[in-house]
Each structure stands twice: as structure tokens, then as C-alpha cells.
Amino acid sequence: MKSKVILLSVTATVIAAISLGSAWGQEFKPSKQIEAVVHTGPGGGSDLFARAIAEMLQKEKLISQRMQVVNKSGGGSAVAMSYLAEKKGDTHTIGFFTGVWVTNPLTTKEATVTIKDLTPIVRLVLEPAVIAVKADSPYKNMKDFIEAAKKSPNQLRQSGGSVTGRDNLMRLLIQKATGAQWTYISFPSGGERLSNLLGGHVQMMVIEPQEAGEQIRAGNLRVIASLTEKRLPTLANVPTIKEQGIDVTIIPQARGVVAPPAASQAVVQYWEGVFDRFAKSASWKQYVEQNQFEDGYLTGPALNKFFDGLTVQMREVLKEAGAKVVR
Predict the structure, then answer these.
(1) What angle in degrees, to the nearest 10, is found between the helix axes of 78-86 and 100-107?
(2) Distance, C-alpha 3 to centroid of its chain
(3) Tens digits of residue pLDDT in 128-147
(4) Number of other residues whose CB lies within 10 A of the CB of residue 237
(5) E-assigned strands of 161-271?
(6) Rg of the chain's alpha carbons, rounded to an integer?
(7) What is the model's pTM?
(8) In what order do the strands lie in the sheet with 34-38?
């Protein structure tokens, strides 16, 4: 009799444990197409990055549903961030963030959403940038460009994206350090920025290696400076901007993924698991190497800490560049 009581007790405990595990450990898996929101138009750095990742995730069979990249350009990152905020609790939407998702709200009163309002998933990479001119440009290095800009203030033009993005902030920092002045022209898509440079309508562009790689290899662009602390391995003959005597803060560019506000723990765990496996894949490692990325994998509390630190850092950079900070 006593053994039966013990057996019943053990059975009840096992059933309770299974039930509790079912209640707390329900797994999430996408059941329909996934929206991947980016703040740039087609051909922009975020657009290229998101599309490459969507393709690799399916190639590696890490997601069972199709990932559709959705371009929500406008207002720097404000339109994309607001779109994600409106999707509060949505289980089939993610966004690909960059540093402008931190800086834009710092300078824009109208911005109603900050990076901290969204749900952090993963930081994937830190991305370098270079300064490029057309291959037949008279500017062989940064000194040539600066001297020309000083001789003809605001006559030279730089193509770029958001005015709160890294490309314009680097312009402001370089201008402050050198006294040179040139004009910044904002375009909604990376394709337009690049085509205006190749067409000779602008004279310079701050661009990421992944966006410029094809044109550099084809001999259409000349890189005159790298915006990095050390020379890039594939551009070892190109000196850094500091090596050329321009001592400015190098603005970091991070790329990663966030989800809408109030994303469930199950959704967060699903995406963290996907990207953890993805970061170990051969496809991803090859992509990182080819595009000169630095592995920047972070999740959870470490990612939240990164956002807090980047916000403080970018607030100081904005002030140093002479931009007005509103929060």
C-alpha cells in the first residue's frame, strides 16, 4: 500500500512538472512571412545587409518562413522606428538597426520612438567606413580634398543619407578639425547616393565596404581614407584619416536586430537561437570577412548596456560636431 502511495506521488509530481514545463516552455516558431524593416531605400547599407541575411538564413535552413525586407525610409530612422512601434507585440516583424536609430531621436524633437522603446534581439557586427571619390577624381588623398574645400568653401558636395547618420557626423567632425567646408546632400537610398558620386554630381562619399566593394573592385571608385583606427586588410595601401593628420573621433557603426515593443520572451528566445546558430555558420563567417565587418555579437543584458553606452557616446559626438541635442 505504501509503495502504491509513493508511486502515485511520483507520478503526480512528473505530470505536474510536465504541465509546468508546457506552460512556461512553449516554443515560438513563425507561422507566416516575416517582415524585416530597414530605414534605408533599396541599395542602402541596411537594405543590402538585411537582404543578404535573409538569403543566408534560408540557405542555412535556420528559418522556415520567407523573410521579406520592407523599406521604411524617411525622417532618418524615424519612419522605420515608428512603424515597428506600431507593431507592438507583433510576432512576425523585426527591424535591422544601425547607429542612426540611436542618434536620430537625440536630435529630433518630433521623434517619438527611441531604441530603448524597442525589444533588443542581437548586435551582429561593427562596420567600418571609408571615404571614396570617383576613380578619375583629382583628389588622391584626404589632404587634396581638404585643400580644395578650403579654396572653394561649400562648392564641393558629399552625398549621404540621414543628417544624423555617421556619414554626416564624420563630415561635421572633419570640418571642425580642419576648417574646411563642403555641402552635404541627403538622398533617400544608397543607390542614389552612389550613382550621384559615379555620375560626378557630388565629389565625395562616406561609404561602407559592403556597399562600395563592387565599385572599388571594378575600378570605378578610389578610396582616399579609412575611417578606422587601423588600416583595413583589403585596403592596406589606404591610410586612416588619423594617419593623414586629421585627429577626429571615429564614430562606431553597429548593425543588428530589434523586435517591436512588448515582444514575448518566447519570440526573443526564438530569434536569439536563430542568430546564435547563424553566427556560427560558414556563410556568415565568409560574409563578415568579405565585407570587412568586425564580429560584434551581443544579446540580452550586454546589448542593453551597449545601447546605453552608445547613447551617451553619440550625445557627446553630436555636441562635439556642433549638432543640437534635444534629449
Answers:
(1) 100
(2) 62
(3) 999 999 999 999 999 999 99
(4) 7
(5) 183-186, 204-207, 221-226, 254-259
(6) 23
(7) 0.81
(8) 67-71, 34-38, 93-97, 254-259, 119-126, 294-298
